[in-house]
Design brief:
By secondary structure, the chain is of the alpha+beta class. 28% of the residues lie in helices and 44% in strands. Helix 1 runs antiparallel to helix 2.
């Protein structure tokens, strides 16, 4: 039996947080997973600010700076993964309520 309370995986596209258990002998799992996407529009607004129109470029950069956190929060999703490794049950969590994910959904 393997247990974690704070597994964190950082990637280019997202950060994934997990807690729960995995039973290696029986090949089953019970995990709570949170996926937080990384929203980054890059340096395009700064390049535009320097090369073409400083007012629009700096405005775009500031909009990205202030809106990235709310956008990341809106795109964050949680799920509960339970059952055998060969046929896990993935249940999407919304607002503290359990809602079954559609069949075939990742």
């Amino acid at each position: 039996m393997v247990k974690t309370d704070n597994l964190k995986m950082h990637g280019v596209a997202a950060t994934v947080l997990m807690d729960g258990t995995a039973d290696i002998a029986n090949e089953t799992t019970n995990l709570h997973v949170v996926v937080i996407p990384q929203v980054n529009l890059g340096t395009a607004p700064l390049v535009y600010a320097l090369a073409v129109n400083p007012v629009i470029g700096i405005g775009s950069f500031l909009a990205q700076l202030f809106l990235s956190a709310p956008v990341m929060k809106a795109l964050t999703y949680q799920m509960q993964i339970t059952g055998p490794w060969k046929a896990p049950v993935v249940t999407k969590l919304e607002g503290g309520k359990l809602e079954s994910a559609p069949k075939g959904a990742d």
